[in-house]
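Open question from group meeting: does this chain pack into something compact, or does most of it stay loose? Before anyone orders reagents, we agreed to write out a predicted structure and look at it together. Recording both the input and the output here so the notebook holds the full record.
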Amino acid sequence: MALTRIHHINFIVRDLNDAMARYERILGVEPFVVVDHPTRNAKIARSRVGESWLVLVSPSDADSAPGRYLEKNGEGFFLLSLGVDDLEQRLEQLESDGIDTVDAGSRDGILDWRVADIGDLHGANIQITQDRPADDEQG
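Structure tokens returned:
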């Protein structure tokens, strides 16, 4: 299973509204769309950049995974997510290659994304993502 693209890049921020305004003003990105991500206890803002997404993550709970990361590392780069065509098959391949991943399987991301955290590679959190087909009723 080959990687298809950089799916999204996450930055962790304390103040989502301030961060969105700064990224829009400084980088000239399209306005962000904000969604709640209750399973991660965070508000998420995303803006399309070419075929990829720029994502801002603002934890709503200090004890959530994003909240703990923010407390330990401060604001900034949080995660690189790489797109795959078949997430489950890629996870099976990693397992058969003896590679331990953070997630035992995939989970729902925001909107139509399925994600799995691979882990830390040279100081960067890496994740793989598959867009769920539009006709999939799990979204």
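Observations to bring back to the group:
Residues 1 and 90 are 6 Å apart (CA to CA).
The two ends are 24 Å apart (CA to CA).
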